[in-house]
Design goal:
about 80 residues
Length: about 80
């Protein structure tokens, strides 16, 4: 009877060790994915900030061009 119980305990222990190993492997995989996503998120944030800055610069340039065009039109209007 003790031999049967010991064999059963050994089997269950081996199963638990196996499951633990699988869980640890999955955990490492998830940590790696998390780190990759974290890195991608940081890169996307930087890209987003750069694009927003570029958009603001373009708006300023467009405003300058519009002001110049309006100034030229104002010069031409009295000449008509």
């Amino acid at each position: 009877m003790l031999d049967t119980a010991l064999a059963k305990l050994t089997e269950l222990t081996e199963q638990l060790v196996e499951k633990n190993s699988l869980i640890q492997a999955e955990n490492m995989k998830l940590k790696t994915q998390y780190e990759e996503l974290e890195s991608s998120t940081a890169n996307l944030k930087e890209d987003n900030e750069s694009l927003q800055l570029e958009a603001l610069e373009q708006e300023e340039k467009q405003a300058d061009v519009l002001n110049k065009v309006n100034a030229l039109l104002n010069r031409l209007q009295p000449a008509e």
